[in-house]
Design a protein that fits this description.
Chain lengths: ~55, ~475
């Protein structure tokens, strides 16, 4: 019986090898302007962006 | 390190350092919670006592699955990133890629809760000249290194009070994009009072994003967002925003609200935004001086946290009904989100992101404008206050000892330097109230994403 379903996520440890291009959006620029959250930002490196519907 | 919680009908286990997310049943949830602190036999005995109907072989199988996930680095993974904390900033030292252009230090509304003190930022009313704005854009290009994407936010006060300069600056930026090999992404943040067909046409042609300030319910919005005669602005701006959004044809926008002590039940405001036909929403806790009547209190905190949970339920419900909407803080791309360097580097204020005043002074971000000690330099001489800038360059996830044991640290990157400064007196402090809100938002965001992923997986299975 499958008791654990692992959701598809970006492996952060592996991203240490191919990340850091710096092209992504600055943290609160262009949206909330009053708090820092980086989880809702896109990676600008196309190889890492999943294709969604 | 792991973080476990139950929300939106799901048992969720987050492996903090790998970013792995697991949806588990009750047996696995309890087993994982004991895994690090108990031997296998004790775990099995305890689980068997709680779930007597589960056969032994299934318990063994579940335990093996947990072991396999640990071995593959998706459970209980260690934090191996500290030595990389300063790398991204070192690698990009001196590179600026985003400016907040304060084109108008004045406003046609008189909102008492405004962190920018009605647009004046504790100074004199002023408009940015075209020459200052043009020099700011040149400064950005000159300091952007090999970065292709440059972000410029027209901010205020109310930037449309200087619309002619905004238009001329965009035209100038477009004229140099090819020769400089840059791509400008513009954002306009407006209160809507001066939106007309010309603004709509321009914004929808040139702005990658527009941020439209609306606090939700009419009575909530008009409590603070009034003109200088005290008249509420809701009636005037909502039709203008509706017209702009309709004409925008799917391009990015946010209806951005602020909630305060007066409306901790802000979900009702989000529903009011939805009822007005908007679907891209952001609702921010007020940022104000300690002691201000609009400040969120400790008594508000449980109300607000509950609102976030109910908002997550509403998002799931509406997605299943085919009427989805976006909440800025619940946008999370588990598969394509930021790399680890971004997550540990801090927000970028004072390094890759600067605010420019109408006279061309540089500040670490818009929230520091007007606080003289944070003036970093100007667009003519560049950064000259290196001592103050260093505090921002040194800001990263590991600079705050409180963050080291927090499960949400790779989602907030150490938090907002301005919030930290205003609540603790130090840019490397921790704004604990904000942390509580942030952690709840992340739990909700991940739960909403998990729900969608599980639905998609179920649909794919049923398609086979």
């Amino acid at each position: 019986m499958r008791r654990i379903v692992t959701i598809k996520t970006r492996d952060l440890c592996k991203s240490a090898g191919n990340g850091g291009c710096g092209e992504c959006q600055t943290s609160c620029q262009s949206a909330c302007k009053t708090s820092c959250g980086i989880a809702n930002q896109k990676c600008e490196s196309t190889q890492n962006v999943k294709t969604r519907k | 390190m792991i973080h476990q919680y139950r929300l939106c009908g799901h048992n969720i286990v987050l492996d903090v350092c790998s970013g792995a997310v697991h949806a588990v049943d009750d047996v696995a949830y309890d087993m994982i919670s004991m895994y690090e602190s108990h031997p296998k036999d004790d775990i099995k005995a305890s689980i068997k006592e709680k779930y007597p109907d589960v056969p032994d072989e299934e318990l063994d199988e579940c335990f093996e699955q947990i072991e396999a996930l640990r071995e593959s680095g998706k459970l209980f993974s260690p934090d191996i990133f500290e030595s990389s904390a300063g790398l991204l900033k070192e690698k990009t030292a001196g590179v600026i890629k985003a400016l907040c252009l304060h084109v108008a230090h004045t406003c046609n509304l008189n909102c008492s809760y405004c962190f920018a003190s009605q647009g004046k930022y504790h100074g004199k009313r002023a408009l940015m000249s075209y020459e200052v704005g043009k020099r700011a854009l040149d400064f950005l290009v000159e300091n952007s290194g090999t970065r292709k994407n440059l972000e410029v936010d027209f901010f205020g006060g109310e930037p449309l009070m200087n619309f002619d300069v905004v238009k001329r600056l965009v035209a100038y930026a477009r004229s140099i994009e090819d020769s400089k090999n840059k791509k400008f992404r513009f954002t306009l943040t407006t209160n809507g009072m001066l939106i007309d067909d010309d603004v709509i046409d321009f914004a929808n042609r040139e702005m990658s994003n527009v941020v439209l300030s609306l606090d939700g319910r009419r009575e909530v919005h008009d409590r603070f967002r009034v003109d200088y005669e005290g008249k509420g602005s809701w009636e005037r701006i909502v039709p203008a925003f509706q017209k702009l959004v309709k004409a925008r044809g799917g391009k990015n926008y946010y209806i951005r609200g602020t909630f305060t002590h007066a409306n901790p039940d802000f979900l009702n405001d989000i529903k009011a935004m939805l009822d007005s036909g908007f679907s891209e929403l952001s609702m921010e806790p007020v940022v104000c001086a300690h002691g201000d009547p609009s400040e969120l209190t400790e008594q508000d905190l449980p109300v607000v946290l509950k609102q976030y949970e109910e908002l997550a339920d509403l998002m799931i419900e509406r997605r299943k009904e085919g009427r989805p909407f976006t909440f800025y803080h619940y946008m999370i791309d588990l598969e394509g989100g930021p790399c680890i360097y971004k997550r540990i580097s801090g927000c970028g204020s004072g390094s890759e992101y600067l605010a420019v005043t109408p006279t061309g002074d540089l500040y670490p971000c818009h929230q520091f404008v007007g606080e003289e000690k944070f003036r970093l330099g100007d667009i003519y001489e560049g950064i000259t206050n290196h001592k103050e800038q260093k505090k921002f360059l040194d800001c990263n996830l590991y600079a705050r000892s409180e963050c080291r044991s927090c499960w949400a640290r790779l989602y907030c990157s150490g938090g907002c330097a301005a919030n930290a400064y205003h609540s603790t007196g130090s840019v490397s402090g921790v704004y604990k109230y904000g942390c509580e809100l942030f952690k709840k938002r992340m739990e909700c965001a991940i739960a909403v994403a998990v729900d969608e992923e599980l639905d998609e997986a179920e649909n794919e299975d049923s398609d086979i």
